[in-house]
Amino acid sequence: MESPARKIIHIDMDAFYASVEQRDDPSLRGKPVVVGSPAARGVIAAASYEARKFGVRSAMPSSTALRKCPQLVFVPHRMDVYRSVSRQIHEVFADYADAIEPLSLDEAYLDVSGDKAGVGSATETARLIRARIRQETGLTASAGISYNKFLAKMASDQNKPDGQFVVAPGQGQAFVASLPIGRFHGVGAVTEAKMKRLGVHTGEDLARQSLAFLQQHFGKSGPWFHGIARGVDERAVNPSRERKSSGSETTFETDLLDQVRIETEVAALAEKVFSWCQKTQAFGRTVTVKIKYADFQQATRARSAASAIEDSALLQRLSQDLVRSVFPLRAGVRLLGVTVSNFEAATRAQAPLLV
Fold first, then answer.
1. CA triple 179-184-189, angle to 5 deg
2. Catalytic residue positions?
3. Annotation-wise, does 106 bind a ligand?
4. DNA-binding: present as a keyword of the record (predicted)?
């Protein structure tokens, strides 16, 4: 890519959690491995490519995954190991770019416009990064290379696993035109269904729509969809991108009906979230409790404090107050979650006063 345009690489590790498990236990190689629990209410955290061939995907209920692939091999997650490997990967990134925007443990954007390593080509830089990752971690990564973040992200999926793809300047709209709308980063299942009802099935269909049409049907997201349909994304790689929330949730083996048990579980989740806040020194103002019922209907309750919540007991109390608002229960509870957010507004000035 010799254009003076911005040069962005999106690196995405291949089946990261599952690949780490297969690396560390050779007996798992070549087998359909999933990270998660086989329990009736378990959820798949990650699936190897062998498992994906059967239609098994992350976030899928374990019971569904087992129906698709009865020979699945379940392994428990080891977050400390995944974080350690992630740090190794990011050390490799730092040799090639100063502007690095992590999206998760296993993917990141790199702006290599400045050619920090003196490679001379963004395409070759991506190849070298992938080779270093394989050499130093024993894992494979895929890469997308383009002149903006959206296209780089989409390109990294083109030749997975262990491949890379380039969308050069001038090719963005043509590349996007051929893609099904469900492939678009940022288009979830609900938006995809709505677009299809409106006759938008591909990037080409999306590009035919006017800005006014997209704003009418998708509100604030309208300009974004209008831009990406034309291969336009002006967002810069943001090294200081802050985490917006931290949460924890649990799916229970049997539905919960007892109020005391539910409040106890919520307090335990709040304590777990606060441990992360304390470790990272990131304290938020807003607490959200999620309740998923036995019929899969979901409710959320949120409350904000006047300043940062820096006390574990207070976070637990607020979480319990929120969950009490759903009683009497409309049905048994299969999942509970607690999230803290609004970090930007958090301060360490004084104990929070509720508003």
1. 115
2. 107
3. yes
4. yes
pLDDT in tens, 43-55: 888 999 999 999 9
- Give per-residue pLDDT as tens, 278-313: 877 788 999 999 999 998 899 999 999 888 898 888
CA distance linking residue 120 with residue 93, whole number of Å: 16
The helix/strand/coil state of 187 is: coil
Fold of 245-341: Dna Ligase; domain 1 (3.30.1490)
Sheet with 245-256: strands ordered across:
245-256, 333-341, 286-293, 298-304
In this structure, the dihedral spanned by the alpha carbons of residues 122, 127, 131 and 134, taken in order and rounded to 10 degrees, is 100
Q: What is the pLDDT of residues 80-92, one digit of tens each?
A: 899 899 999 999 9
DSSP 45: S
Contact between 287 and 266 (Cβ < 8 Å): no
Fold of 6-168: Alpha-Beta Plaits (3.30.70)
Question: Checking phi first, is residue 162 left (phi over 0); if not, alpha (psi -120 to 50) or beta?
Answer: left
Class of the CATH-defined domain 172-228: mainly alpha
Check if the beta carbon of residue 23 is closer than 8 Å to that of residue 164: no
Query: 6-168 and 172-228: same fold?
Result: no
Output the pTM of the full model.
0.76
Residue 12 among known ligand-binding residues = yes
